[in-house]
Specification:
Length: 456
């Protein structure tokens, strides 16, 4: 609970849960007056309306890590979320009549939410973007990682940080504009800069710290109540990725996480079995229609089988609906690319809608894959990527997944740079692996599929 309260997004969830329930209860008081006392199960029904409304807001991106800055967009999406929530509640009340809260009460609640919730969200956006509430941040270092962090802080102002500048080892670079702000001092000026600019947050981003780190001044900052954080940890907090370009093995070895309990593994397997059985049963009509379309629109088999690397690199045969011509790889294995001319007409649709991946539920049921995990890669590509990307083989320490953290956070991978970005998400997932994170990724996957994000 304390972790939720320390998170801006978690705190916003809780506040809006109470706010929406409050709207329902106040509407009930206005509508029913003294009759409110005899109204049964009203708090639970108010909770249901709040949860449905928050799910709608979630699916419209209003709980993303970085809140939308354009207030017109915030207002419009909140109105759409309320409309989606009202429609969903009406459907629930029709399907399960005991859940209904009464026509007059629901109309008053819906009207109140349409008025109050968008205004509330615009006010939240105003507060979040107020500079006075931001933590003033100083980056010790001026290398690639420092610049990358500077860009992220400036781009994601809603995360609550305000970049003041950088410190460089070379005093002669004072005043050089890296990102505007630029270099405001040298390492020796740390204490002076913290006082002068009233710094709240110091990020240490030195690629090589031997003989350079201003240890005494950093310790003084820490003892004075300033937040002193290592750059890779701050990058992880800000992005949900682990920065691998300057990552040292010791940072993985001695960091928290990367330890999955036997209970979590067993529970994850139970969810995989139950989810894959239900998924196959529900998907049978789609499987049948897709099989017919693939068969009659292009030459070749309905299903495409390909060797992939599973847990600990063990090979297995992955099954997909065939979306490419049968001669697509006559010259050898190649990356999929944007507007790939090897894709058939039906294949283009089933890729965009992710229908081509439905047969992989069979791989999940067999235990070769999980519902959630890093996407299974081809051994030939793994051998290539291991030479170019540090720690790439570490993603093989868990079962590959039908969906994954990288899939819902990043576009479809087609280059080595894409593979590196996705690895950073995969390592974050492996470090923080839990059933709760898996459920969040499943919810995000539904959103990705509905809005057709990231497929090729």
């Amino acid at each position: 609970m304390l972790a939720i309260l320390r998170s801006r997004r978690g705190l916003l969830y809780l506040i809006e849960l109470v706010l929406i329930m409050g709207v329902v209860l106040v509407a009930a008081l206005v509508r029913l007056g003294s009759g409110l006392i005899s109204y049964r199960h009203l708090p639970w029904k108010a909770l249901l309306v709040a949860i449905v409304t928050q799910f709608a807001m979630y699916y419209l991106g209003l709980y993303d890590r970085t809140l939308i800055a354009a207030r017109a967009v915030v207002y419009r999406r909140t109105v759409l979320a309320v409309a989606l929530a009202v429609a969903t509640c009406l459907g629930l009340f029709w399907a399960v009549p005991p859940l209904e809260i009464g026509r007059g009460l629901f109309l008053l609640t819906a009207f109140s939410l349409f008025i109050l919730l968008p205004i509330w969200r615009v006010l939240v956006d105003l507060v979040i973007t107020t500079r006075q509430l931001h933590r003033k941040t100083l980056i010790v270092g001026a290398g690639d990682l420092a610049v990358e962090l500077g860009r992220l802080v400036m781009k994601n102002r809603a995360m609550g940080y305000d970049l003041v500048g950088f410190l460089d080892q070379d005093r002669a670079r004072l005043g050089v504009s890296i990102l505007n702000p630029g270099i405001v001092g040298s390492y020796d000026d740390l204490a002076m800069c913290v006082r002068k600019y009233e710094i709240d947050n110091v990020i240490v981003a030195l690629p090589d710290r031997r003989g350079k780190l201003p240890v005494e001044q950093l310790l003084d900052c820490k003892m004075a109540g300033k937040e002193v954080v290592e750059a890779v940890s701050f990058y992880e907090r800000l992005t949900g990725r682990i920065y691998v370009r300057e990552l040292k093995p010791s940072q993985l070895i001695f960091s928290d996480g990367f330890g999955t309990t036997a209970t979590t593994k067993r529970l994850k397997r139970v969810i995989d079995i139950v989810g894959s059985v239900i998924g196959l049963l529900l998907a049978l009509p789609i499987i049948a229609i897709t099989a017919i379309l693939v068969r009659v629109t292009s030459r070749g088999p309905v299903f495409y089988q390909q060797e992939r690397a599973g847990e600990f690199g063990r090979p297995f045969t992955l099954v997909k609906f065939r979306s490419m011509r049968i001669d697509a790889e006559k010259g050898g294995a190649v990356w999929a690319k944007e507007n790939d001319d090897r894709v058939t007409l039906v294949g283009r649709f089933i890729r965009k809608s992710r229908i081509d991946e439905i047969p992989q539920i069979w791989n999940v049921l067999k235990g070769e894959m999980s519902l959630v995990g890093p996407r299974p890669e081809r051994p030939v590509f793994i051998r290539e990527l291991e030479k170019e990307i540090p720690f790439y083989s570490q993603r093989l320490h868990v079962k590959p997944g039908l969906t994954g953290f990288a899939q819902v956070r990043y576009k479809y991978g087609a280059t080595t740079e894409d593979a590196l970005q996705k690895l950073q998400y995969d390592l974050y997932y492996i470090k923080n692996l839990s059933v709760i994170l898996d459920l969040q990724i499943m919810l995000d996957t539904i959103k990705v599929v509905l809005f057709r994000i990231g497929s090729r």
